[in-house]
């Protein structure tokens, strides 16, 4: 998810769209020449991306024949839920956004006789471990009663397993693992492996596949994806996290990129120094921006939750006490270190820092991308309610340097797009983690305005003009918005705008 530079015209993200067009055209050509790949050639058919059939700017779902996947359970849910939404604009947004990942980004197929599903981010023809997990999270609830959907999700778990075994330090992989890396990553100074799209080491990229696997298991009871290959991948995940505690050495990972934006590269190839205190280093944030300090606190909190989930699965499904004990002991180490080094004093009391170095240095801010400090409860990664409440107040205020207010709304952004750009994702997470009716209503109102009549969510928009947005096709944010509206419609329908 490399930087998008908004065009002078509102509602554009030219650098992303130009790249996406080239990538998808190339992918379609590859599929035509290699019809026996893990997916069928129709999955890459150029007609689904043609402006004459569907584009994110058109404000409606793709024609039925051009949808990547159809779930009967999801379609029934769309019908039932939309009947509770009386505001026509919100209803259209929900109907467009909730199925957007299934409609436009999944590429189901087979590998070695098992389901194999790649998931694009939207306008980039590659699969992020984080995004692919988050994009399908709201569909887990339907998998037990929809066998084709369950198989699709199984294919994502199996594809993520393959990706982790290729390189646990990569954040993104090509949908076609035989394809060259993403255009902007092909000349990076790092140990690129075949199939890797971009190699920015992000701790959350190791956590999200665990979250999806655990959620899938709890939703379906199915253990088929958790075979010897998955066990190998999970063992590698724990080992990688251990190495990145950097107790004995800095580890093998190095990365540098020639780029105008300094957040796209690492100082000396490894980032700024950190003192080994038990926390796990992350070179890049969930935004794909370089960390200022090596220990990213929301990702470490997420890691504790994920490692505990993995320990349960290793013990219950794999009957592997060694892996379970390794995951559990690492989780306890990180949890203890978070209590000692992960917070900072403010006039309002102790809050979670965003990044720390173990020497006493800390960064006080939050970024829109999840894991974020704001989003900790959404990931079941908020161990102290009092600290979270104070942290939430801090990050949703002018004290956070990446919080913006304007005539079009308020919310959190980040260096990835830059100043004055609000990310709808932050507003969605603000509502998903809120216990206040007023906050949820306010968030829904802002999100309605942020769409600028396009029928979809976006990556970011200018605080004073929602027509100036980046990424017309951003499936993670679309699906997350659908998850929010579905939750409100089911549990608090009185909060929906009329």
Describe this structure in words.
It contains 14 helices and 15 strands. It has helices spanning 14-33, 72-82, 88-97, 100-104, 129-136, 147-166, 203-220, 228-243, 297-316, 321-341, 385-395, 424-432, 437-450, 475-491; strands at 106-111, 114-119, 126-128, 172-174, 196-198, 295-296, 343-346, 349-352, 355-356, 362-363, 403-406, 409-412, 421-422, 460-462, 465-470. The protein is α+β, with helices and mostly antiparallel strands. The chain is globular, with a radius of gyration of 21 Å. The strands form 6 sheets. It has a 3-stranded antiparallel beta sheet. It has a 3-stranded antiparallel beta sheet with strand order 6-9-10. It has a 3-stranded antiparallel beta sheet with strand order 13-14-15. Residues 1-53 have low confidence and may be disordered. Helix 3 (88-97) crosses helix 14 and helix 6 (147-166) packs antiparallel against helix 7 (203-220). It has 2 domains: 88-104 and 402-498, no CATH class; 108-401, Alpha/alpha barrel (Glycosyltransferase), CATH 1.50.10.
List the helices and strands and how they pair.
Layout: H1 14-33, H2 72-82, H3 88-97, H4 100-104, E1 106-111, E2 114-119, E3 126-128, H5 129-136, H6 147-166, E4 172-174, E5 196-198, H7 203-220, H8 228-243, E6 295-296, H9 297-316, H10 321-341, E7 343-346, E8 349-352, E9 355-356, E10 362-363, H11 385-395, E11 403-406, E12 409-412, E13 421-422, H12 424-432, H13 437-450, E14 460-462, E15 465-470, H14 475-491
Antiparallel strand pairs: 1-2, 3-4, 4-5, 6-9, 7-8, 9-10, 11-12, 13-14, 14-15
Helix pairs in contact: 3-14, 5-6, 5-7, 5-14, 6-7, 6-8, 7-9, 8-10, 9-10, 12-13, 12-14
